[in-house]
Amino acid sequence: MKHDPRSILWTLAYRALARPLLFQLSPEAAHHVVMAGLRVISANPGLLEMLRLAGSAGDMAHSREVFGIRFPNPVGLAAGFDKNAEALAAWGALGFGFVEAGTITAKAQPGNPTPRCFRYPDLKALVNRMGFNNPGADAVALRLEALRDSDLRPRVPVGLNLGKSKITPLYEAAADYLHSFRRLFDLGDYFVINVSSPNTPGLRTLQGREELAEIFKALQGFNRTQSAAKPLLVKIAPDLEPAQIEDVLALAEEHRLDGIVATNTTLDHSALAGRRDETGGLSGAPLRHRATGVVRFVCSRTRLPVIASGGIMDADSAREKLDCGAALIQLYTGYVYRGPALVAEILRSLPPNQSGHTPASASSSRAIISGLSTCTPSALLPNKCPKSRRSPVTRYSQC
Ligand SMILES: Cc1cc2nc3c(=O)[nH]c(=O)nc-3n(C[C@H](O)[C@H](O)[C@H](O)COP(=O)(O)O)c2cc1C
């Protein structure tokens, strides 16, 4: 793999300076410090340009079109990092090909009591039980509207990840998701229905057939009445049984969703044996193989594009997900442990335009946070999952 001096500098600066300082703080305090810095940069065109020059942004060799959106590269920021869509421009400048903001709920909510995020540095893992702390769909919509009308719009696609408000009963979940979807519709390039966080009581039961059908129906019903429908995806847990995943996929296809995000954090804490355990979802290196197994299974069962997330900590684990058929990948915990050099490291390791998704003409590019352009129906996109990889599996296997 080629090395470039900027990447080596980022690696050294993060490992030797930033990470030791940040890791002196609690995970949540460190996150606040990072987000405060990125908010300042996102509001300042000069600083953004400096970050772009210092980073790896702007390399279109890995650009691809997925569910009708042109992504400058396949490496995105996973949901939960920029929950409130506060530093969108900075992520693109840091080299990410897209950002998924959220989880956003219809109603503002404080999340669970702190502490609610925990590091396991020897395992390169995190456990979190944040509980969708966010200012609510209306507040995020106001921020995105202001951003849309400014020069500080992000240059990469922005997905908005939607969750159920904690106080909303499960039987009213569909209406709760629909409220957020309607309010934010014009402001996101794609949307993710998050029914897989382990930290909102009962949320994962929404992955059941009837519950999910009701949510898909409500959101797609609205989506189809718009002049240009937005790509709608569902994010699944890594703890589902194959039969449950097949149910989700069948429903996603029936309701013409545009893709699957696999996976969220796991409730399997066996990797933490002998350490202090904490309630919440486990992410990072111990999630890698479980998530890869789910991604592979999903790719073997559907033509829908997959955004893979879970345990991507280096170039190898990134390639693994793409080799299984993922169209795009997302980072969270890997970014915490490896810092900004991780994106460039992954991109350097990828052959240009890897994936079955063919590059599209510039004219089909989607305007970012504009809601102006239309999407290519996913049915028209080429199948990125070679038939040769479609082996019958009873339990997930690895690539
Ligand atoms: C602290 C923390 C907060 C998260 N918050 C969310 C969230 O709000 N919504 C969501 O869909 N996923 C959330 N996630 C899950 C990540 O988006 C990602 O799917 C998961 O962590 C697996 O990827 P990773 O191993 O690279 O971290 C969160 C993860 C962490 C570590």
Describe the structure in your own words.
- With 399 residues, the protein is of the alpha/beta class.
- The chain has one domain: TIM Barrel, CATH 3.20.20.70.
- Helix content is 36%, strand content 14%.
- The chain is built from twelve helices and 13 strands.
- It has helices at 5-22, 27-42, 45-54, 88-93, 137-148, 173-184, 209-225, 242-254, 288-301, 315-323, 333-338, 341-349; strands spanning 64-66, 69-71, 75-77, 98-104, 117-120, 125-128, 158-162, 190-194, 232-236, 259-262, 281-284, 306-309, 328-331.
- Strands 3-4-7-8-9-10-12-13 form an eight-stranded parallel barrel, surrounded by five helices. The protein has a three-stranded antiparallel β-sheet with strand order 5-6-11, with no helix packed on it.
- It is globular.
- It starts with a helix and ends in a 50-residue tail after the last helix.
- The structure holds flavin mononucleotide.
- Flavin mononucleotide (FMN) is lined by residues 78-80, 83, 102-103, 117, 126, 128, 130, 132, 161, 194, 197, 235, 264-265, 283-284, 287, 309-312, 331-334.
